[in-house]
Design goal:
This protein has 472 residues and is an alpha/beta fold. The protein has three domains: 177 residues, NAD(P)-binding Rossmann-like Domain (Rossmann fold); 241 residues, Orthogonal Bundle (N-(1-d-carboxylethyl)-l-norvaline Dehydrogenase, domain 2), CATH 1.10.1040; 35 residues, Single alpha-helices involved in coiled-coils or other helix-helix interfaces. The chain is built from 20 helices and ten strands. The strands form two sheets. It has an eight-stranded mixed β-sheet, with helices on both faces. It has a two-stranded antiparallel ribbon with strand order 9-10. α8 packs antiparallel against α14 and α14 packs across α17. The mean pLDDT is 95. Bound molecules: 6-phosphogluconic acid. 6-phosphogluconic acid (6PG) binds next to α8 and α11.
Length: 472
């Protein structure tokens, strides 16, 4: 009798299809399930098995209990579904069909707090639950994604071999796949990945804005410039695709100008921004990138306001070298904020996360892979923060003047530089020995008796100002 497959995959949308093909190409025998929706989704799994030669040997199903029975124990079932209610509904249908020791690996873009709840609920039922962040889009899922796992620690060794097989390998041959901690750790890390991704994308949009707003420059100049940047340590996947995108044209006009200037989002950037606020870590670049998308989508209001508040732009000669230095520094600040957010969360949730491992996971397969990320694998082995890493300290101290000049020009050009300026403000604040927060504390104490610590004493009990006596 034919051996039963012990890997199953549910959900054959774009990501599920690519991931199932990746498993099959790596020799993993599979059962595939896709729901049946009369007239809309019929025999999807079967059609996939016929369409893709590598899935020829996979077993297709539309009946969940037949699918579960076809799998060898302990079952390893990957869910690739829309995050939220759809995922919960399938987990609820699946759970009564499973046996103790079976493993669910949920690979959607789920909120880490949902993953935490699912892990707790399923663990109580004896089912191991792993939340898996998957990055790399459709192509990454097919050829090698970055996989960020969290949840049932004892289940990870049972699935590690196959997951590492399908994951991306970085230039040192290391698989971009790891177990990161209990509950929602994997999806937390994927969420931070997306927050960094938003800011990396926005920084490139601001570079675009700068070059295009200078009347002497055109898309070609920008494309050539990015082509040069790709030959340096600034190289990244997002820079690479931006360079490619700018090369497209239609009727001899740059295609990029045919796209409406309204950015969408699917929510993970908002989760990352809100989570930073909950954790109390400054993640102002991801927030700025998110808010830039929000304002961009108010096209009608922007057009109206543009008439009410006409801008008299003063032409500025932009130094392309200065622009590159600024871009590089802002990327350092963006990565710094993202990694700090992870460090903070690891302490709060008790995850034993090594930042070098995170850099490794993000060094191939994912959207934010870059030369910088690859270099961080080694840097994080001896230092716990980007602000402690010698080459970056030197870079910031040397290139900060270019950053300052660029911001001045941006103000005169009257263009929004949300991420570049958020990075500047953050850097100014985080490197300031004496801040103005003493005034905030005085105000809080005045209207709410919230108290403060004194500069002339080590006493940790809160004090009140002389205004308290006056008010009585
Ligand atoms: C990835 C991406 C991927 C995607 C998100 C964010 O790592 O493969 O982050 O998850 O880009 O869907 O999309 P939005 O820009 O629509 O929020």
């Amino acid at each position: 009798m034919m051996n039963k497959p012990n890997w199953g995959l549910i959900g054959l949308g774009v990501m599920g299809t690519s991931l199932s093909r990746n498993f099959a190409q790596n020799g993993v025998s599979l059962a595939l399930f896709n729901r049946r929706l009369e007239g809309k989704e019929e025999k999807i799994a079967e059609k996939h098995c016929n369409k893709y030669p590598e899935l020829k040997a996979a077993l297709p199903f539309e009946d969940l209990s037949l699918f579960v029975n076809a799998l060898q124990s302990p079952r390893k079932i990957v869910l690739m579904l829309t995050a939220g209610a759809a995922t919960d509904s399938v987990i609820d249908q699946l759970t009564p069909l499973l046996e103790k020791g079976d493993i669910i690996i949920e690979g959607g873009n789920s909120h880490f707090e949902d993953t935490q709840k699912r892990a707790d609920k399923l663990e109580a039922a004896g089912i191991h639950f792993l939340g898996m962040g998957v990055s790399g889009g459709e192509e990454g899922a097919l050829t090698g994604p970055s996989l960020m796992l969290g949840g049932a620690e004892k289940a990870y060794p049972l699935v590690a071999k196959e997951l590492e097989m399908i994951a991306a390998k970085n230039e040192k041959g290391a698989p971009c796949c790891a177990y990161l901690g209990s509950g929602g750790a994997g999806h937390f890390i994927k969420m931070v990945h997306n927050g960094i991704e938003y800011a990396e994308m926005q920084l490139l949009a601001e570079v675009y804005e700068f070059v295009i707003s200078d009347q002497n420059q055109d898309i070609n100049t920008l494309q050539n410039m990015l082509g040069e940047w790709l030959k340096t340590s600034s190289k990244s996947y997002l820079l690479e695709i931006t360079h490619v995108l700018l090369g497209f044209s239609e009727n001899q006009h740059p295609f990029i100008k045919l796209i409406r200037d309204e950015a969408s989002n699917k929510g993970t950037g908002a989760w990352a921004t809100a989570t930073g606020a909950k954790l109390g870590t400054a993640n102002s670049l991801m927030a700025a990138a998110l808010h830039s998308r929000f304002t961009s989508s108010n096209k009608g209001i922007r057009e109206q306001n543009a008439k009410t508040f006409p801008k008299q732009q003063r032409h500025q000669e932009v130094s392309l070298e200065g622009l590159k230095k600024t871009y590089d520094l802002c990327r350092l600040i963006n990565h710094h904020q993202g990694f700090e957010m992870i460090r903070e969360a690891a302490q709060l949730y008790g995850w034993n996360i090594n930042l070098s491992t995170i850099a490794l996971l993000w060094s191939e397969g994912c959207i934010i892979k870059s030369n910088l990320m690859f270099s961080l694998i080694d840097h994080f082995k001896s230092k716990s923060s980007i602000f402690e890493m010698e080459p970056f300290i030197d870079q910031i101290n040397t290139d900060i003047v270019a950053w300052e000049e660029l911001l001045e020009k941006g103000i005169k050009l009257r263009i929004p530089l949300n991420c570049i300026s958020a990075a500047w403000q953050y850097f100014m604040s985080i490197t300031q020995k004496q801040s103005s927060a003493n005034l905030i504390q005085a105000q809080r104490d005045y209207f709410g008796a919230h108290g403060f610590l004194r500069t002339d004493s080590n006493d940790k009990t809160v004090q009140h100002g002389p205004w308290a006596r006056k008010k009585n």
